[in-house]
Give the backbone structure.
Amino acid sequence: MPVQKKTIFAVGLFPDKNKNFLRNLCKRFRVIMLRGQCFDPGGKYSPEAVEDLLPEEDQQLKSQEFNWELYRCMKFTEQQLRILLGGSDQSQLTKEEYERLFRTTSMASLMGHVFKKLTERIKIDMVVSNADYSVFRRPIVLEAKKMGIPTLNIEHGFFATTIEPSALIDKNRMPSLIFFSDFVNLDNQIEKEIWEKYYKLSSAGRHIQFLTLGTPNDESYDLDIAKKDAIKALGLEQGKFTIMVASTWIEARNAAAPIIGQIEHVEYFNRTLECLRNLQQEQPIQVILKLHPAYSTKEVYKDAKLYLQRYAESIGLKVGLITCKHISKVIAASDLIISPHMSSILWEGVMAGIPGLLFPIPSFYFKTYRKDKLNESNVLCRRGILRFVFNEQELMEKISYYLDSKNYTKFKRDVVKLCADKQISFEPVEEKSRRICDWIEKFLSTDTPPKVIRVSEFEDERVNMFFQMGKDLIRDGKFKEGLDLLSQVLQLDPRHSGALKLLGELFQKSGQEAKAKKMWQLAENS
Amino acid sequence: MTENLKLMEEIQRLRISGKIQEAFILISAILKGKNVGRDELIEALRLSILLGENQMAYDIYLTVKNFENFNPQKVIEILLRLKLSLKNEPVPELDNVDSGSSSRWCQSYLADKQDPVYESKIQDCSIDCHDGTVNYEFSSLCLSCNQSYTVHISRSLMVYREFYCPICLARQFIDFSLLKHHLTKSFKGEPIEKTDDYNAYLADMETKLNFDSVQDNRFPILCQYLNVDYTYYLVQLILKRQLKSGKAG
């Protein structure tokens, strides 16, 4: 009797990055996806669309339930605005803002609903997502976790260049921890060590297990492409030292990003190009301007390319190529990479034997990390494989350093040693995809698979989190919001001694001695 | 016809709000119908020019110029832009027009063959953040016809763009330095000082939002579904209020 394939619900795989992985997944498992996210991976097997497996009525939201949740979400948002804007009267959402919230939440809600309905009909053995923090994946990952279905997140970026927590200015103000699935697959040991350091600092996310099965991107650095072939294919000149100036993608994760971060990103290009112009007058160098894949939309690419062309021309810099594609060839053609951010491209460069310089965007780095610690904040920096530069002079000096072939040879030796120490080697995507599928198969075939933590087990963490938030708000003079949170803490845990004591102090300060005493007594008895 | 009139109003609204493709889809639907009049064809002609579809524009022109009630005087800008875009095709209707009532760029061209590129005068900005992407909507003034229109910029301020005013078809440009000037002017003082606080709060919230996974509590389930997208949404709301308020201006 043939063995029945296990069923995987795959969410958010990228058609331009995960064809190989999906092909492997479909070969070994029954794969179900949302129709809008389905793509043909090539090969004999394809994913099934969830919409084909559910009757029409199961694919619609119950409006009453959704409306209530939307109302709560709206009220919560207005409360957040009051806190953020200091009790401002601008906390009410406009019609337009409400409609935007409605559109996104109804889409997200429908995803969660459809998934829940599917599980009533089909046993889902695992949910595999790419980037589980995104709104296009999270509802399904969250619902799966509630039901105790194992979740695995694969990634599409490389994190080996991430700054370690040792460089944080304030350990309580660290970059947000975004992963959520039970298992998070990373590319290698360096990435795992960094993320584990961050997650150890936090009370949240202790359930996550990091795997290092390799990040299965279809296109990345490729050691089989010879430099001279890449140079020829890209229409560049042979025999010149080729410098890639990479861009990043400024996500709107904080209030500075859409304005200050974006301005600084363009200024990073201006400043770097001016340095390269000076260098080009003395040295045989050629320049590639490599835009982030997020620029690949026709209009965005056209705007940026024209800007860079005109700027380079205005300062007298000759640019060999501006592109947001051909990543493997562009890496193979380059001798040095300059980046404004700890981007994946720097790691891909290291693996291809190309040194990298990080010329950081100030509003991203200097508010979060200690500038003096940045060059010691990561194993790559500590070993001199990656360097932060903080001004034009340092940038010029470091480029000149790598123009010296002795230094370049030393760099290559250092990379070989790092890879040996961390047991890292170049592997094609097929190998990584196969290894992830092997792991899933093994995990699902175990009689007693490792325990997956259900969401309800986060209860204690949540209580403590609310208490901490409430305390912080009161310390900052936001009494109403703080008290609101403390009362939520006591609703969840009426014997929470910290909340009771704090309330006692507040009552005492406001002259309500009797109430204060009662709180302290309760705290003592708890 | 009433339906066409409503659609025409919507098309004009879309055109001025920078949604040229959407406007063109609607006008194409009208052109497929029976009651196609002069005004619909002129709108289609203007949209074709805005989209750079010059041959299509010329074909429409050949049809519309034969309408009995076609008055070149009322569409000088369109005819002149068509002539300049096509280079080799004749547009004889331009020979007898009076340029006095036309927009500044037309007068300039008809007087001394200059086709100036005007700076797009930014007056206002709104920001939309979704799935990490920032979309900017700039309300700009055309310095040729003194009318407002919208420019959409997505993902990055690394921009140099030349385009036609969707109303009078004057050449316009917008670039990083204009965007930077407007945004830094609008986003200064208190908001910049408060940005660190906002960011600390948002980063903190993002982690908590990520792990607070039980319903009926501080984070409503829909916020949990949105996860980082909820932070993007809050960023958008904050920036909108900052850019709008007197404090930010």
Observations:
- Chain B has three domains: 2-97, 118-185, 187-244.
- Chain B has a mean pLDDT of 85.
- The two ends of chain B are 45 Å apart (CA to CA).
- Residues 190-211 of chain B form the longest helix (22 residues).
